[in-house]
Design a protein that fits this description.
mainly alpha, single chain, 0% strand, 56% helix, Non-ribosomal Peptide Synthetase Peptidyl Carrier Protein, Chain A
Length: 78
Amino acid sequence: MEFKNEVIALLAEICQDDVVKENPDIDLFTSGLLDSFGTVELLVQAEERFNILIPITEFDRDIWNTPNNIANLLADRR
């Protein structure tokens, strides 16, 4: 649970909005909270903070679209 909270806190930083903490099922792309620059920042930070490498080619916006999904996907790669 702690790792998930760390990921969601990271997303709140990147999106510059605490709504991701309040609603971890919000679609980050359709809501405009995450764009291509934010996506790159997320991948860079995942590698730096959690030592998890995600190639951009494996990033699918339809799957990596909510804070909960992102936290679960990163947890699976730990």
